[in-house]
Amino acid sequence: MLFLPRFDYEEPRTLPEALDILSDLRSDTKVIAGGTDLIVNMKKGSVDPARIVSLKRLKGIRGITRKKEIVAIGSYTTAADIARSDVIARSFPVLRKAALSLGSPLIRNRATIGGNIATARPAADLPPALIALGARIKLRTKGTNRTVIPDVFFIGPGRSILGKDEIITEISLSTLPPFTGADYIKLGHRAALEIAIVAVASRITLDSPDGVIRDARIVLSAVAPTAVRALSAEGALLGEYPSDELFAKAASLAMNDCSPVSDIRGGADYRRDMVRALTIRTLANAYREACGQGVGL
Amino acid sequence: MKKIITVTVNGTEYESAVNPNMTLARFLREGLGLFGTKEGCGVGDCGACTVIMDGQPVNSCLVLAVEANGSAIVTIEGIGEGGKLHPVQEAFIEAGAIQCGFCTPGMVLVAVNLLENNPSPTENEVRQALSGNLCRCTGYQKIVEAVERAASKIVCGERAGEL
Ligand SMILES: Cc1cc2nc3c(=O)[nH]c(=O)nc-3n(C[C@H](O)[C@H](O)[C@H](O)COP(=O)(O)OP(=O)(O)OC[C@H]3O[C@@H](n4cnc5c(N)ncnc54)[C@H](O)[C@@H]3O)c2cc1C
Ligand code: FES
Ligand code: FES
Fold it and tell me: Residue B121 domain-assigned?
């Protein structure tokens, strides 16, 4: 049996109170949300905080709300909450698909979106979809307030710009322009309880159902120290009419927009090949959705 | 420092002083003597420690007991009534879905929760619901059959009750 080291535990009732506790940087303090990363890491001994601050009782950081064009997701919202939200299913089906590929049903009932971002795992399932959708992350400390995009939030495996005294409070998304479609595909050895070998999220916006591509994002995951955008592949799509040949060309470019490593989950060459395959597939599905034909799960 | 928590387990309210580093799985087993909840991997991979927390199945090895303060927990000990097995438990026995039994409490609780929310699941929905629970013995087929059998038992039972 794996035991947890000792630590102090605080359960603030308000966000200011939580930020106040975190602002005391003398003690090594960690925030806990769902605990599905933190508790595992503490059991394995890779982190050993002296104090844990629980976000459980804070009001206003869980749930999904829509105000006009903006959908706000509280950082304590679980992957299961996201997967069953009608607002998400209607406006951002790609995020629903990403949430459903995270862990297992049991893990999803605890794992939060804030925790999935804060851990900064290279293969985390929600960031690729969030980057593709142009999400914004709200961060707070006792005295500061900032909003950043996920593209700049991640620095490397387990590393981000998140300060020790900072809390992710909300993730916000603007509703997408018409004729937009997106898809996320995660490649793993099995369907549940699996960390991605490669994952790709793509989004395209067309001028009109039979028009050119006006905007495109392709995000590659598990093939670089952080999720990365395939910028040369994106560039190849802009202003062009969608076609199988165009998607194949973009996918070949995407293979060089990443820097995969070989490990026990897959070789670098295999990963590059899979980047190409998944880029073609996600673009084709995104295109189908952009034309109003829907994308299957 | 110990924290006082109040947790409702299988309908009974318990007040208890626990160390923050006590997991819910260990609290149920060592604190309350409810040994039906098993601990396998301890890191969220196997589902042997599954309990229902506020209506949702979770891995109790990854939940701190202090985080369960104020919650309602259902363990395998809490699903039968008056010494009678739950229809899902009966179906597991009838279908031969139990071998060593270590995964069974978690499997049964996930199935009970699934059937409460979706009384007539498809085979695919059953497999999806059980995808966080590993079994080293049965090969899963009989577990899936047991859940399907339980679904028809419960639906038929309710119809019989209406007649
Ligand atoms: C069996 C298993 C399978 C998994 N499978 C997957 C998978 O398929 N895909 C995937 O992406 N992940 C997976 N994970 C990892 C994990 O479940 C997710 O990363 C999850 O989203 C983490 O969220 P949490 O709320 O549990 O975070 P916690 O464990 O509570 O916290 C994780 C880290 O983030 C910090 N943190 C949490 N919330 C905030 C906040 N609001 N502000 C600032 N810092 C914060 C904590 O201090 C901690 O360092 C898996 C984990 C397990 C145990
Ligand atoms: S013991 Fe909790 S998931 Fe294995
Ligand atoms: S019956 Fe032995 S692990 Fe499932």
Answer: yes
